[in-house]
């Protein structure tokens, strides 16, 4: 078998350049002379959107009938790695069956603002959670020898001006918030391909960003697959080839390949870059061809059932006053809202699946033989209140023991391609909820939405379920949770804020013209709300169950560690209720004192466990340097400051139930350099330089000003200058002050600096 490298060496420059872009919307090119075959790629990420005829990247034209799993907004809410792995494995099998070599997903950009039109497709506001879930999804797909394409790399967190906006993100924020999920996807997920994003990052298009595509992705993270462009993301193809963009999609009818060819011929581009790109692409495709199994069966019925089973694990129970849920057989139930018969279960755009079947809530109630009445309540076509529909809904509510209203965001309210401008659900739905609540207080609201919404009626609902976009068998999942056949165990992968104005990037989201400054820095999602002690509608990580859990026995493997050690943390969790249930055990780490701005606490571990009533299980986590570190911009590396860290077990980012301290000692000394403008405080904080300074101060005695006595001993003087002020004056004094105030010469100051920097 001839290796990709050898193949490349046998190709003409023209042949190699032709392989740098797609043959059409979904296929890569072939070189028949050498037996090099093209492959097919298809979207993702929550199903297979294989377009056999007319291709497009917006979900306009039909794709083959397929199965839609819960979208990432929902599947991430499961906090269940095995669940997304299962989705990945199933999609991998489907791709094998359909001879699709690469499934275009997962999409793992950070939910910076609830307004992003594509949030439904993204995983979380938290980079650790997004990274963990991405790794299992990737490994699931790739275990079937189908590639993923991790997208959209990077800092692609808005749809507004999506092909021209420039995400301006500082180094630390990039490293701590916007890159870790991609890092996990490359390092641990071992993704076959990455997809670069449309936007610019700090002034350069991602499609031609050498630092991003080569230095970081390949150099630091060890990525050995190929990078394709998002569809139409290429600006300067020649620059892109040298920067590490291997494949342009969907292609440019050969126009850009010709530019690359000419650049090589004219000596403006080294041919080795072309060779590398082709080799990367062929290596991955060979992996697929070597393991292609077109006879893999695709049982759509079985996948439909699976989609429903998994969706039930993703529902987040947010309120359950007076244990209004689960519903009981025999209760008179009114189901209200057009979504009950026309559910919204996936988002619009390139991820849109052509479902072979959709099971609505009404279908599921019918199938289970449940007695219920139904009223449409509102029209999904507009926002106008329809008096007749309202009256019918109110009458149904009055005649029922309990009411379930299905509400949320219609397709036009959130989609790929544009951002939302507000967080409201349609006005007619809000009005309906209020009217129905007045008629019957036993109200449960079930939401279909891909991103947080305002809930002006939240106190009126005794029961509340965040259903997200649950995939094509959403109805079965909803029914199972409503009736308690499945005990809800989803947790919010994002904070639900009270109002848009509260969100961290409210003042700068979307940007000015093409410039999108990430002004809130690392304070995204709960990192912001928790630091600011702000009220939120529901916090990150929150979700209820039909049972209760108790935590005990938090144990750390050590009281003190070095930053090169690992720390083992264990905690016991008991199901203290009457029914089986699953708990998401969340571990947060907070640095008590830091010289840099840090979040109050950050998620560094989670595990989902199933417990029978009365059962106890021990959950164990291993923390390493990254669990304690922040990105230090002086050393351009992760760094842990020595000090006490709190290891906390919480039921959300807000509610810590157990906590234990650990002392972490840094093994890295951040190099410091002092000059005449360095201030005393900073010098004294450095153990070595501080000692030099102390010795020198002692030598100089009172001429120097000791801090206790500022030179004036009269009462008037001490009224004018308090001890606090004197100390502050000293602390903030630059070294050059020694020249002004103690008569030190420039020569002597230079000598002192040499000692301090020694
Ligand atoms: C989207 C990608 C998608 C591609 C192909 C683009 O518009 O941003 O996520 O994979 O189209 O459909």
Structural commentary:
A 6-stranded mixed β-sheet has the order 10-16-15-14-11-13. It is globular. Among the domains are: 304-531, Rossmann fold, CATH 3.40.50.1700; 549-665, Immunoglobulins (Immunoglobulin-like); 680-756, no CATH class. With 758 residues, it is α/β, with parallel strands linked by helices. Helix 5 packs parallel to helix 7 and helix 13 packs across helix 16 (474-482). The protein contains 24 helices and 27 strands. The chain binds beta-D-glucopyranose. The site of beta-D-glucopyranose (BGC) has 7 residues, from loops. The site of beta-D-glucopyranose has 7 residues, from loops.
A few lines on this structure:
The protein has 758 residues and is an alpha/beta fold. Helices cover 31% and strands 18% of the residues.
State mean pLDDT (0 to 100 scale): 95
Strand order of the largest sheet: 10-16-15-14-11-13
Global morphology: globular
Bound molecules: beta-D-glucopyranose
Provide tags for this entry:
758 residues, binds beta-D-glucopyranose, Rossmann fold, 18% strand, alpha/beta, Immunoglobulin-like, six-stranded mixed β-sheet, five-stranded parallel β-sheet
